Amino acid sequence: MTSNIVEIDNLSFGYNGRVLHKGINMAFPKGKVVAIMGGSGSGKTTLLRLIGGQVKPTKGEVRVNGQVVHEQSRDGIYQLRRSMGMLFQHGALFTDLSVFDNVAFPMRELTDLPESMIRDLVLLKLNAVGLRGAYKFMPTELSGGMARRVALARAVALDPSIIMYDEPFAGLDPISMGVICGLIRSLNDALGATSIIVSHDVKETFLIADYVYFVANGEVAAEGTPEDLMQSTLPFVHQFVHGEKDGPVPFHYAAPDYRAQLLG
Amino acid sequence: MINIIVNMVSRLLRGIGSRMIARVWRLGAGTRLFMLAIVYSGESFRRFHLTLREVYFTGVMSLLIIIVSAFFVGMVLALQGYNTLQKYGSSEAIGVLVALALVRELGPVVTALLFAGRAGTAITAEIGLMKTTEQLSAMEMMAVNPIARVVAPRFWAGVISMPILAALFSMVGVLGGYLVAVPLIGVDDGAFWSQMQANVDVRADIINGVIKSVVFGVACTMIALFEGFDAPPTAEGVSHATTRTVVISSLTVLGLDFVLTSFMLVV
Amino acid sequence: MDRTKIDLWVGVFVALGAAALLGLAMKVGNLTSSKIGDTYSVSASFENIGGLKPNAPVKSAGVVVGRVADISFDSKTYEAVVTIKIDKRYQFPKDTFANIYTAGLLGEQYIGLEAGGEDDVLKTGDKISQTQDAIVLEKMISQFLYNKASETDKEKSAAPATSEPAKEKSTELGDAPF
Predict the structure, then answer these.
(1) What ipTM was estimated for this complex?
(2) How many domains does chain B have?
(3) pLDDT for C108-128, tens place per residue?
(4) Which residues of chain B have pLDDT under 50?
(5) B84 assigned to some structural domain
(6) Yes or no, beta carbons of B142 and A90 under 8 Å apart
(7) Which of A58, A91, B150, B265 is 20 to 30 A off residue A135, Cα-Cα?
(8) Which residues constitute the domain of residue C150?
């Protein structure tokens, strides 16, 4: 159990009277790529925020490196976050800074490294995502895929031991998707880090994930290796993995009787 | 029948109540942000270039609008003042009128109103968009405090910029008034300045004007920052927040101006 | 936006602001003229000071020689005691006359000193005994109306002498510009 770098224990969360999670248990072993999958609005992104300590659980706890996140002081949470990197859904690059300055941002803010070393490190990180040549660009001059890669370089700027990805594949063309896909796996293995991917893109996620959790209705509906889940006979998993339009998740949103409403 | 009336009244009261609570809540949240900005402002001074950068965007970029408006305000004041003063045979007092109006009231107030429209909206929109595009969240996840890194430098930049802009406004306004009064209307050059100097007091008028502009600087910048920070993360939310910045800033400035003026006249 | 350019512009901005403040203080305000060096203070009693305020100028022959330091009320004599500070460079005889004048018709009030002829000069703590009160506009108007009224009464008996009092009052307006 000690090899689990992040553990989620009987976690419940909700706000404004809406319950999002009902007793979730998850474990993220060191060095693995673990995916959290589920439909839109199933609270996947909120799980990442809970791990990062941006929101507090209503019940249960999240442990990072054995420390309970929501019991930490502000400084303690900041200390934990220094070992995390996060890739936001749309990159969340700082639009007023150049590509170079974006990647240099965490180094400049959190370390006392001399500028010459920062320069070398930034170019190293940019080279890893293949964008060393684009260091002068502003974020608005980048394509979606390139912006995502710059954000990835920024997320791993301080060699984190946990890297979180929020929908890393959303809205990308197939080539960029493949590039990001490869990068996630290679960066994880190169840094010896743990990656947590939140996604609903089955094909890409299954390609790189070691273990997958399915979240539905605030609970872990299924878990296992990608191979297991492909064979799964659970109706929900089957529907999700094979992208069927009707199943346990109905095509129709709950509505009164069609005939009655039309004639009514 | 009675029931309906009771229902209506209670609904009305509930509406007033909930709106009131929302207002008070926002006021509290704004004050909290203000306190946090002060508490976390160490970095804005340790790494002063962060603040300088914001002075550039709020102060330097507002120079043009401030100078041009001040010039016209000064000229109009002189024209209008001359028109009235001349009826009492004291057109030399035009210098006093222009200078006092500018230094005591128009300098700080109009500068603050223009500042709210020019720099305040820019701050709100920028921070609102940073929130919408998750830049603030990203910063937080990087263990960088957005209040120390984003809010505090902008706050201090606004507080520094406002008195400078107001002083410029007053000075340029006086020059505009001079141009209309002396070369155009033909008021005596010496009388224009000497009357002004005899009646404008450094402490009671000029220093008080500076104090006003500092207070307005705090209020306008803080409102702009809070609205940006509090904006719902949608395009509509940011646009509403920007509008609110202008409306609330303007009302606050005018209200504060009355309070400050009454204090200054009493003391 | 590179940093040196920002630094330059912000420098220009701050310098402009400092220049504007200095200009306001020097050219618009009275920082230069209000500088009175060493002073000595004397007091004067008035029955009515009108709208005289602390820090009002004290002038002699139109030159500012001092400022009003303090105004208080003497409950024994029921008079206003005005303390004024006069620049040490200017000496005034003991029998100097202190008047309260109004700058212009509705302007602010100031104290005018008219030098007497004695050899002894005023020193700190001295009291100016010869004073003239402020002109209160309401009083003047009522007086004027009273005179007008009596004028019409007397018109039948002694017409030529009646305009005298009104004329005398109007000269008391001092340097009113009409």
Answers:
(1) 0.81
(2) 1
(3) 788 888 888 888 888 888 888
(4) none
(5) yes
(6) no
(7) B150
(8) 138-174
